[in-house]
């Protein structure tokens, strides 16, 4: 067993760490043994564990867990980038969320992480032309997690959504890599136009709680959007915007706002 775990760690360090943490968690809290075994220790890979968790969360009287699990297994087998993005998301949550102390926490407990993985399966279905099934995944994700992401939206890897209540991301929105956002963020449109109508969020952007970014505008790489702001105009890279409507109030204050998670505007920043 030790040799097997060592080999696993060399091939897939994220999954190996989750398995190790799961073993420790069962010892510390035996009452969660069933949950942890079914969710993690019974599975040979992160991909299979994700399929289990997603199908369990999204299943209802209209779509069984078994059917959803087969859909997820097909998605992860067809597109390895889905699970690689999930690994990056786990690391992102661990590094940026002070409430996250282990890799297994997002997989088991954090609805922001789980909702993003559901979106990734829905987006895969959308790209396969299976739009109605993708809409079903979107609907169930919204009902289960309070996170409503259109399956056609394009979202990068290393995403951290903290608390993840009332997140809305529209159909033509684009979110870059290593983006962090807090609860009640909206990436929405400004009217009934049917073309490209949603924001384009650059890499490394931090979006504070309750912020609304509306319209086909770009938020430049490594910028900060202050909590409660309404952004209606483009934001240059490495700037901080705040207010209703949002205005530039300073520099971003650091090279990677989404990683530092510093939301305080300091004098001269």
Your description of this structure?
- It is a single chain.
- With 269 residues, this protein is α/β, with parallel strands linked by helices.
- It has two domains: 14-145, serine acetyltransferase, domain 1, CATH 1.10.3130.10; 153-268, UDP N-Acetylglucosamine Acyltransferase, domain 1 (3 Solenoid), CATH 2.160.10.10.
- Helices cover 45% and strands 14% of the residues.
- The protein contains ten helices and 15 strands.
- The strands form three sheets. A six-stranded mixed sheet has the order 3-6-9-12-14-15. A five-stranded parallel sheet has the order 1-4-7-10-13.
- β14 (239-242) and β15 form a beta hairpin.
- α1 (2-11) packs across α2 (13-28), α6 packs antiparallel against α8 and α8 packs antiparallel against α9 (131-145).
- The longest helix is centred in the first third of the chain and has 17 residues, at 80-96.
- The chain is globular and about 50 Å long.
- The model has no long low-confidence stretch (mean pLDDT 94).
- It comes from Marivita hallyeonensis.
- This is Serine acetyltransferase.
